[in-house]
Amino acid sequence: MKNIVIGICSVVLIFGVVLTAYTLHGRSVRETELSNALSYGMEKAMGMLMAEGSVIPKSDEELVVCFLESFLMQIDSNSVVTVNVLDVDGEMGLLSVEAVLEYKHPIGTKGWVSQKMCILLEAYQVENS
User: What is the pLDDT of residues 56-70, one digit of tens each?
Assistant: First the structure.
């Protein structure tokens, strides 16, 4: 009887440790995914400001749409994404956003990760002497 109780307690303890490790790993993966998606989306949107051609965003709203398209293509997980645009100025090359990724833990509770990122495009002018 004593061995049965020890066995059941050991299984429950191992299950709890595995579930905790899986939850922490899932959070880490989603933080990395959100960070990479924000970086990629912002760099792609700002790259279009520097590009020569007809795809240059003509307004701040088009710049935000360009960012959102690039950002959302990078999100692979089954999550709910909320993006708040904090500041945008296409003329000055400024884009600042906050993204919140909401997901479910393996035990069914909700979890979320958030990140703020700001990018400023610097324009250098090269003079030929």
Answer: 667 888 888 889 998
Q: Are 97 and 117 in contact (CB under 8 A)?
A: yes
Which is nearest to 45 in space by CA: 101, 118, 99, 124? 118
First to last CA, the chain: 91
Distance CA 19, CA 6 (A): 20
The secondary structure element, H or E, covering residue 105 is none
- Model confidence over 71-112: pLDDT tens digits? 989 888 788 999 999 998 877 888 899 999 998 887 888 989
- Residue 89 Cα distances to 51, 52, 82, 92, 116, angstroms: 17, 19, 21, 6, 17
Q: Give the 3-state secondary structure of residue 38.
A: helix
- Structure tokens given for 50: 């520097």
